[in-house]
Amino acid sequence: MLSNQSVAEEIVKKFGDDVYDFEEPFGLLTLTTTREQIIPMLEYLKNHSDFKIGFLTDITGVHFPDTTPATEYCVVYHLHSFIHNFRIRIKVFLAEADLHIPTVSEVYASANWMERETFDFFGIIFDGHPNLTRILNMEEMDYHPMRREYPLEDPTRQDKIDALFGR
Amino acid sequence: MTEANIAKTNSGTLVKDESVQYVNELTTLNLGPTHPATHGIFQNVLTMDGEKIIAGEQTVGYIHRAFEKIAERRPFYQITTLTDRMNYCSSPINNMGWHMTVEKLLGVEVPKRAQYIRVIMMELARIADHIVCNGILGVDTGAFTGFLYIYEYREKIYEIYEEMCGARLTTNMGRVGGMERDLSKEAIRKINEFLKTFPPILKEFERLFNRNRIFMDRTIGVGGISAERAMSYGFTGPNLRAAGVDYDVRVMNPYSSYEDFKFDIPVGQHGDTYDRFMVRNEEIWQSLSIIEQAMKNLPEGPHFADAPEYYLPPKQEVYRSMEALIYHFKIVMGEIDAPVGEVYHAVEGGNGELGFYLISDGGRTPYRLHFRRPCFIYYQAYPEMCVGSTISDAIVTMSSLNVIAGELDA
After folding, report:
1. Which of A108, B207, B214, B367 lies 20 to 30 Å from A129, alpha-carbon distance?
2. Residue B304 in contact with residue B314, Cβ under 8 Å?
3. Considering only CB atoms, which chain B residues are within 8 Å of A137?
4. A29 Cβ contact list (under 8 Å, min separation 6)
């Protein structure tokens, strides 16, 4: 059984200053790294003789507008070790001006569509992706709908005032 | 054919022309978006050499309904109806997975009885899901009989749903903090009757298929995937277990008292269509055993948690007591703020690990909600699984993967 403490210590030993913001929300080890380190990190966790964190559960994006310093977008990776039943969450923050992150589809085949989905909804560009096109929305769409600035309802509607409903 | 040849043929002189070169021409074939064998709306553009598939590409998103975006504007109760519409073959699992995610965030402890009722409902949903998949797999291989036998019992499960929540397909079952209603007498009678009458039919269904020569020829070695590739492609659930990896969320990260029940994880060896069929069949037996255990050991007590701020009060109390009315109003209008937090909760859905990644910023709605939909993740392996086989094999492979369009597109 791996403990959050021991895994975190090993990762710090290996990556030093490139990993930070360690947290444990609801017992799930969460850490932040840089985009340069994301592929080495996943490979390290996958090939490590003790950890064997070799299953990519999920990739998704989150948008935090108006953050300072400018790190508006976050790519979240959830990984799982079937052998030790250990889960870990890795975050990479990106600035809106430079939304590039290397693709991990070389490491995990499942990342292909997850990254396409993240690109589709947030406009995060995964460098080196074999086919970075929209997946759930239509090709002609010229915006990325999960960004916070795109309202859910038609903003020009006059008959429905959100303030009246406490929204 | 060259132009000269066509002219020759049109004029009626059908002489063998040695100069004609028959090139191996590749054909592009659209399987879907609406095709009876895709069981949902998604397209596969297959490149064919004769009857052999040499490449494939999927187009998905035909029924994308922006659930994640909608969820950012809805209070927690209103999101339950969105989860229904993902894997509509086993909606109670989705509903309860969502409720458990919210409970985890809120720190609500659910009483044992509610947890057991949830287990019963989720296992019934799993049976319904596997019945659909395996029954239709039979239809796709040309065996309609089994489907007709077994589908009657999906109807019986829907009748149990009706007892528990009033709905059949999009169930919206349960509440944050427990169940909406306790198992009624009628529900208990129906579940017991189901447990008694379903096993013989399932036996008969298995007798029709398991050692059926035609069925075996159509499915063994078709659409196989190795354990390594399956893991790399993010397979979970019965499809991963058919490839030989015994990963089951119910065992690895037990939720809702699954640790109280004894059941096996069936695994396959080759990850082919036959193994997937057999794993699902065996899972139905295991689910039946879980329901039986839960019915036998059903604890006494309340069927909802003592969390008035989050649990919708019973309707009769809303009419009588002021407090219940206030809470009812606040919950329905979404006036209750959730604590700040970041949760990932996974349940074993019909198709695999159904995950909910929820970020709350302390408001009435989630800041961000992401659904980890097993279908979406494993469907990308489909071209790799059917390249080199024929169209009829591709149909069977797709059918046994149990791709549900609602879950695929969210």
Report:
1. B367
2. no
3. 61, 64
4. A4, A7, A8, A22, A23, A87, A88, A89
Lookup: tokens for B201:
């039919």
Which residues are paired to B304 by β-bridges?
B178
- Going residue by residue through chain A (167 aa), what tens digit of pLDDT does each one get? 788 888 888 889 888 888 888 989 898 999 999 989 999 999 999 998 888 888 999 999 999 988 877 788 999 999 999 988 999 999 999 998 889 999 999 999 999 999 999 999 999 999 999 989 999 988 888 888 888 888 776 666 667 666 666 55
Tokens of A121: 């909804």
H or E element at residue A58: strand A55-63
The answer to whether residue B355 neighbours chain A at the CB level (below 8 Å) is yes
Q: Using alpha carbons, select from B40, B61, B33 the residue that is nearest to residue A138.
A: B61
- Chain A partners of B359 at a C-beta cutoff of 8 Å? 62
For residues B54 and B394, the answer to whether their CB atoms sit within 8 Å is no
Q: Decide if A26 and B342 are in contact by the 8 Å CB cutoff.
A: yes
Q: B70, B233, B255, B360: which to substitute to probe chain A, counting the most A Cβ within 10 Å?
A: B233
Number of alpha helices (DSSP H) and beta strands (DSSP E) in chain B: 18, 6
